[in-house]
């Protein structure tokens, strides 16, 4: 009987190490909906435990954690996205629409490591789920990374990085899916330059009052912005998120096509007026939400400056109604060589450099400070 | 003392499960150089073991193994390639120039699984190393997958899949690195259609007698073909490899540029004659190596058919000197929209369908047989 008891002990030790790994505390970059789920231990001698999963849909969402030791496991359930796994700032793995998958990185070497899972692709109609990072032993758990700077990006496809890895403008739906890489868009590049946390609240095809070619009337970006999921089922919970800078780029979809019969604006002038008023109100709501944030409004100089001119009018209106610490940026010189005339990787570089130069002017983002 | 012994047993069981995993026997698709290395157990109570690693350089090399149970680990040491990990025919992970990395897939579900590691990118100046698949327990080891059909592809960049994922013709060196995906080239598509094993013995820029623009004189594909590594340090060991079909596509690089001063051919006619004679000799050497293989010679119809016409002359010469079971295929209708006017993914599809139609004519590859 002593021998039998002994083998049970051995099995228990094995199970603890291999299956009941310790979950790492997270830094979450972006909106994700937590849900506590029961994890069945699968054995009579160890109790069931609880774990938190995170459902995500906005682009560019990332999860980070720190640990010691040479291994970490990443657990996802996502049939639609390309997900990147980074270790210590190096992109090591891509999970290509992996489904329900647990992947473990081993032989990482001793010492502290930071693991990061990042949503690279855009999914407008489906969600994915992150089920946590784990390490073999509780002693390997470290506090999650923290940031002293934070930037929020609000926009459309230009902010998502729509098709940005493409080397051509002609793309199928699958091409767009495969070539959109938010991690290589200008926003994350700016944030990484300043070692800043960031969120990408952007949705391709959406505008301030009018979406691309008039689709999905009313479901504009300022409306979607209120939610964590795009079906409006879960309100956004931005508690604990206080960006130093909010950068908004919206208007291309409002103006890129002629008005169709049946849309709510009788004339182009009426569309312009609605855009200016609504955009100013949206900026005022951002100021109310983030009283100390520096706000940047961006627009391209293409399409005879229709977006740029109306964006500047919206900024002037917001300023006249009390919104301070607000600047506008017009960008130029892009080659638009990615899918459907979107910014190419070369353009992402132009945009990130332009924005970095602007943010360098802010005391908290000044080069000497940011290098710390 | 009984209790103490008991805890040693527990630790030993844990170590065996977590660290001394069982290596899986392999099916290796392509040339790889095995090397037996000592694996230190890192503990006083378990002996050091041996493992075989595989150095690879030719494109499209893949390693496959079968196992039962819900987890498998993949061990690589490769700072240059994009490597794909497939489980049961589904591409689940991409290792992006991962360095020395062990990655484990877990929660795969019970039952038999097939794991596959595949080199997607082309590396001409560096090698990578595969260090094996492992499962936690010896009982989970299954025999490696086997194939009843086998195809060898010999060629240049068109066979490598050079830049094929690009949606444009303008590409930097990094673009080519990032967009070359041999797994999506026409050769692997043809082989997978027939559930055939395959090898890709191809090298971008090489020709029959002359490489692209005359570079690397003498180090042509028929010469490189003799080696497992491109520095000529290790002879190819093709023991056990008996392809049913050998498909050769070479000549684009011989003819795509004007002759430069100092090259060994005084005239274009001399180049043509050397190509025809050397290509016929190469085909004769393939016939000697693989007496029962069906041989296909392929060429595009571009560049005023200079490649196609000379390829046909080489085929006629080989046939006149006794090479039977040989056919030629001229392909047309490509858009050449990938990097530097290479076949696009759309073109890969045209090419694979064309070759599948031809191979359907072979008794062993006839649709009714191939479906088995």
UniProtKB/TrEMBL annotation, chains A, B:
<keyword id="KW-0378">Hydrolase</keyword>
<dbReference type="GO" id="GO:0016787">
    <property type="term" value="F:hydrolase activity"/>
</dbReference>
<feature type="signal peptide">
    <location>
        <begin position="1"/>
        <end position="20"/>
    </location>
</feature>
<dbReference type="InterPro" id="IPR036514">
    <property type="entry name" value="SGNH_hydro_sf"/>
</dbReference>
<dbReference type="InterPro" id="IPR037461">
    <property type="entry name" value="CtCE2-like_dom"/>
</dbReference>
<feature type="domain" description="SGNH hydrolase-type esterase">
    <location>
        <begin position="153"/>
        <end position="324"/>
    </location>
</feature>
<keyword id="KW-0732">Signal</keyword>
<dbReference type="InterPro" id="IPR013830">
    <property type="entry name" value="SGNH_hydro"/>
</dbReference>
<dbReference type="Pfam" id="PF13472">
    <property type="entry name" value="Lipase_GDSL_2"/>
</dbReference>
<dbReference type="InterPro" id="IPR040794">
    <property type="entry name" value="CE2_N"/>
</dbReference>
<dbReference type="Pfam" id="PF17996">
    <property type="entry name" value="CE2_N"/>
</dbReference>
<protein>
    <submittedName>
        <fullName>SGNH/GDSL hydrolase family protein</fullName>
    </submittedName>
</protein>
<dbReference type="InterPro" id="IPR052762">
    <property type="entry name" value="PCW_deacetylase/CE"/>
</dbReference>
<feature type="domain" description="Carbohydrate esterase 2 N-terminal">
    <location>
        <begin position="51"/>
        <end position="145"/>
    </location>
</feature>
């Amino acid at each position: 009987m002593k021998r039998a008891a002994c083998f049970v002990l051995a099995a228990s030790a094995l199970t603890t190490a291999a299956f009941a790994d310790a979950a790492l505390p997270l830094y979450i970059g972006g909106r994700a909906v937590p849900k506590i789920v029961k994890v069945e231990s699968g054995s009579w001698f160890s109790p069931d435990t609880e774990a938190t999963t995170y459902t995500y849909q906005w682009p560019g969402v990332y999860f980070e954690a720190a640990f010691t030791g040479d291994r970490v496991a990443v657990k996802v359930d996502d049939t639609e996205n390309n997900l990147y796994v980074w270790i210590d700032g190096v992109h090591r793995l891509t999970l290509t629409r992996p489904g329900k998958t647990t992947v473990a990185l081993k032989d990482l070497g001793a010492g502290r490591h930071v693991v990061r899972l990042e949503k690279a692709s855009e999914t407008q109609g489906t969600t994915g789920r992150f089920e946590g990072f784990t390490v073999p032993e509780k002693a390997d758990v470290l506090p999650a990374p923290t940031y002293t700077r934070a930037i929020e990006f609000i926009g459309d496809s230009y902010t998502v990085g729509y098709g940005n890895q493409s080397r051509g403008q002609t793309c199928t739906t699958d091409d767009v899916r495969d070539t959109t890489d938010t991690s290589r868009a200008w926003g994350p590049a700016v944030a990484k330059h300043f070692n800043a946390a960031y969120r990408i609240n952007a949705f391709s095809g959406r505008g301030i009052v009018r979406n691309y070619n008039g689709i999905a009337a009313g479901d504009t970006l300022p409306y979607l912005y209120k939610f964590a999921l795009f079906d409006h089922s879960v309100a956004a919970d931005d508690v604990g998120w206080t960006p130093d800078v909010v950068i908004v780029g919206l208007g291309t979809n409002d103006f890129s096509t002629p008005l169709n019969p049946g849309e709510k604006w009788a004339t182009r002038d009426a569309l312009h007026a609605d855009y200016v008023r609504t955009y100013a109100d949206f900026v005022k709501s951002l100021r109310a939400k983030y009283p100390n944030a520096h706000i940047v409004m961006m627009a391209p100089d293409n399409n005879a400056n229709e977006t740029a001119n109306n964006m500047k009018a919206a900024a002037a209106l917001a300023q006249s109604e009390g919104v301070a610490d607000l600047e506008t940026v017009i960008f130029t010189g892009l080659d638009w060589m990615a899918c459907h005339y979107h910014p190419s990787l070369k353009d992402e570089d132009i945009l990130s450099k332009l924005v970095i130069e602007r943010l360098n002017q802010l005391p908290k983002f000044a080069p000497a400070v940011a290098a710390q």
